[in-house]
Design a protein that fits this description.
Layout: H1 14-23, H2 27-40, H3 45-51, H4 56-74
């Protein structure tokens, strides 16, 4: 495993990261917040990504998103998926 230690911007104090983890209900949010917490704790990107069951490439992308815009940039923005072909009837 590589030791890519990209500088993580500390947009929030660790206490706020912990609070976000406690309040999060969506597994996507929990995974991404946990990833940032792992980086705060000193993990490399591959280590932090592995703890959350993700690839190092995903970890790199998440780190860039976090560094670019913090919590808002990191969170997934799913469009709701493809509309159904069947109507109510």
């Amino acid at each position: 495993m590589g030791s890519r230690r990209t500088e993580i911007k500390r947009h929030l104090p660790e206490e706020e990261i912990d609070e976000l983890l406690r309040e999060a209900e969506d597994k996507h949010h929990i995974r991404r917040i946990g990833f940032v917490k792992n980086l705060y704790q000193g993990d490399t990107i591959p280590e932090a990504a592995d703890r959350e069951g993700r690839s190092p490439a995903t970890g790199t992308r998440w780190t860039e998103d976090w560094n670019d815009g913090g919590f808002e940039e990191l969170m997934p923005s799913f469009g709701g998926g493809r509309p159904p072909k069947l109507d109510e009837d």
